[in-house]
Known about the structure:
Number of strands: 0
Helix content: over 70%
Strand content: under 5%
Number of helices: 3
Distance between the termini: 67 Å
Mean pLDDT: 85
Radius of gyration: 28 Å
Largest sheet: none
Order of helices and strands: HHH
Shape: rod-shaped
Low-confidence stretches: none
Amino acid sequence: xxxxxxxxxxxxxxxxxxxxxxxxxxxxxxxxxxxxxxxxxxxxxxxxxxxxxxxxxxxxxxxxxxxxxxxxxxxxxxx
Length: 79
């Protein structure tokens, strides 16, 4: 998880307990979890937006390719 070992998480938890205090830890944990969920949604939305843009671009490229008129050999000799 983010390249953090269990020992480092334990140190972070102990420091948080000392700095924040035991009475505010649940509130801070809820706020942090809410923030992480919002960031996950944001990343998901950006990924989906990029994916949709790529699909739209591919579709437009294929549509342009299909819409290009194909000239028959008879048309080539006339023009």
